[in-house]
């Protein structure tokens, strides 16, 4: 059974930092683009960041560029999202995602996600 399990969410003040982790089990995703999406209150789920299977290429939504960093450790089947300079508008449930296809686009399409985690809440207070 394939599972993506996120951790590391919580409550933080504006300007603070959090690191989210995603542990994959049930199969390896070494050849798959992986990334993070988020869904704020009353909003649609949106793309945040994607990382290539070989880790040297990344892509970020404009809203997080320069503040968030995505990384992965294929040996451990882990994906991370380092979030700095957090803003209240970053408040959302954050979801780890694995692309349905091998070597997929870094700018992940929600419709092409093959696996989702259960989500972890990030709340940024002003």
Instruction: Calculate Rg over CA atoms.
Output: 13 Å
Number of helices: 0
Beta strand %: over 45%
Low-confidence stretches: none
Question: Topology, pairings included?
Answer:
Elements (H helix, E strand, L loop, with lengths): L2 E5 L2 E4 L4 E8 L6 E8 L6 E6 L6 E3 L7 E6 L4 E6 L8 E11 L10 E4 L3 E6 L1
Parallel strand pairs: 2-11
Antiparallel strand pairs: 1-3, 3-8, 4-5, 4-9, 5-6, 7-8, 9-10, 9-11
Q: Can you walk through the features of this model?
A:
The protein is mainly β and 126 residues long. The protein has strands at 3-7, 10-13, 18-25, 32-39, 46-51, 58-60, 68-73, 78-83, 92-102, 113-116, 120-125. Strands 2, 4, 5, 6, 9, 10 and 11 form a 7-stranded mixed beta sheet that branches. A hairpin with a 6-residue loop joins strand 5 and strand 6 (58-60).
């Amino acid at each position: 059974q394939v599972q993506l399990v996120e951790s590391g969410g919580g409550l933080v003040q504006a300007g603070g930092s959090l690191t989210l982790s995603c542990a994959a089990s049930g199969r390896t995703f070494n050849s798959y683009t992986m990334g993070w999406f988020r869904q704020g209150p009353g909003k649609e789920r949106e793309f945040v960041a994607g990382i290539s299977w070989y880790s040297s290429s990344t892509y970020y939504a404009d809203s997080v560029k320069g503040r968030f960093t995505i990384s992965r450790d294929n040996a451990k089947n882990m994906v991370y999202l380092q979030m700095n300079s957090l803003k209240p508008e970053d408040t959302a449930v954050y979801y780890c995602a694995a692309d349905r296809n091998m070597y997929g686009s870094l700018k992940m399409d929600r419709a092409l996600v093959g696996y989702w985690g259960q989500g972890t809440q990030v709340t940024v207070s002003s």
